Amino acid sequence: MQNEELWQSVLGQVQFAVSKANFATWFRNTKIVSSENGEVVISVPNAFSKEWLSNKYNSLILKILRTSDNNIRLINFTVDSPALQQKQNKPQKIKEDPSDQLQFQEFKVNQETNLNPSYLFDNFVVGSFNELAHAATWATSESPGTVYNPLFIYGGVGLGKTHLLQAAGNRAISLFPEKKITYIAAERFISKIVEAIRNQEIESLKKKFSQVDILIIDDVQFFAGKDKTQEEFFHIYNNLYQNGKQIILSSDRPPSAIPAITERLRSRFEGGMIADIGTPDFETRLAILKSKCEQKNITLANDVLDYIANNIQKNIRELEGSLNRLLVYQKINQKMPDIEQTKKLLQGLTSSQRKSTSPKRILQVVANFYDLKQDDLLTLTRRKEIVRPRQIAMYLLRTELNESFPSIGRKFQGKDHTTAMYACTKISQRIEEDNALSIDVNLIKQRIYSEPENS
């Protein structure tokens, strides 16, 4: 059996053993380059893929190969990337200005689409926490308007939503260059609506959006409370959807948890595919760091990488921020920092990851999440839109700070401790039964520990 035929046979069986997202990420652009004396050498596009396949899929690949040839005893991976080799061999110019710290990779945003070409599926690390969202955006980019429409991606700050949305747009451009694609942040979209209304050009703006084949809007939670924006977007959405155009949206929460949004718009958001992005585990955080190091052409000691992955847990964006700090150190000192220097350089970032909060912080985040004022939570009203958030606040004071029930009751205008007990028991039970509530509480916790106060 020829190498190419053998590898195609292996890939055919691998597809049944791994998810579509992982197959697309790790097995694309691979091939057998030699098979001699019981050893098979597999070519991969980069060092990151080599390490991941060696650690994760070595046993699976060897098992499948041995079903075709029982003499195969060993597999090895080799990097075959001329572009990478050229990049590594090219002398690196060290700039002396530390203010240049975020300019290690310069990419120009496409003025026509607003997409950043650096956001690709090729440099997006797939893990269990984002596998569904990755697979959905990949499929959408290959068949816009037919597979998942709309596609709604949600997750916390800095977990890769923007990367995925823009990767979908960039891949769609490469596959369908004739299609018109527009990426826009929700806040920018709101500004355009306001400006168009002020200048009496709203119909012109709606006509412009009607000509788009793929509309990508990031952070639609900012539509909350913007009635005119919601009304105009509703019409834009219907026009695009009825004409088979693709709509991709992102938010920091699922549609059901976005406050002050019309029911007809919420139902549109929920009418297609909804996929969430969770928090990456240690293994995936380490993989992300190694991928970023490869992109930036830097080498860090394993203990440094382990330290960063262990101490920056909730935000992928901060993982890259930590690497940028180390790069600034390298540019100034002409060497990469060791573990002790790394701890000092990242002290501010890692300390912010420690799990600490306060009653004031919990009340602030719960109120903001449900588009309320903190005073609303403390009133004696029985209004439904306030009772549930108040109970969640009580529950979090108990579970996150271990406050006593009498102490919790005193914070809510002297309510009896039995009221606090009832609230905590009710929310605890409902979380087990109500998936939407469970998602809300997890998102609130994520905000409590990851966002700055008074945000």
UniProtKB/TrEMBL annotation:
Residues 331-455 are annotated as: Domain IV, binds dsDNA. ATP binds at residues 158, 160-162. Domain I is involved in oligomerization and binding regulators, domain II is flexibile and of varying length in different bacteria, domain III forms the AAA+ region, while domain IV binds dsDNA. Keywords: ATP-binding, Cytoplasm, DNA replication, DNA-binding, Lipid-binding, Nucleotide-binding. Residues 114-330 are annotated as: Domain III, AAA+ region. The keyword DNA-binding applies. It is found in: Cytoplasm. Residues 358-427 form the Chromosomal replication initiator DnaA C-terminal domain. The keyword DNA damage does not apply. This is Chromosomal replication initiator protein DnaA. Belongs to the DnaA family. Oligomerizes as a right-handed, spiral filament on DNA at oriC. It comes from bacterium (Candidatus Gribaldobacteria) CG23_combo_of_CG06-09_8_20_14_all_37_87_8. HAMAP family: DnaA_bact (MF_00377). It comes from the Bacteria. Plays an essential role in the initiation and regulation of chromosomal replication. ATP-DnaA binds to the origin of replication (oriC) to initiate formation of the DNA replication initiation complex once per cell cycle. Binds the DnaA box (a 9 base pair repeat at the origin) and separates the double-stranded (ds)DNA. Forms a right-handed helical filament on oriC DNA; dsDNA binds to the exterior of the filament while single-stranded (ss)DNA is stabiized in the filament's interior. One of its GO terms (biological process) is DNA replication initiation. CDD domains: AAA, Bac_DnaA_C. Pfam families: Bac_DnaA (PF00308), Bac_DnaA_C (PF08299), DnaA_N (PF11638). InterPro entries: AAA+_ATPase (IPR003593), Chromosome_initiator_DnaA (IPR001957), Chromosome_initiator_DnaA-like (IPR020591), DnaA_C (IPR013159), DnaA_dom (IPR013317), DnaA_N_dom (IPR024633), DnaA_N_sf (IPR038454), P-loop_NTPase (IPR027417). Gene3D superfamilies: 1.10.1750.10, 1.10.8.60, 3.30.300.180, P-loop containing nucleotide triphosphate hydrolases.
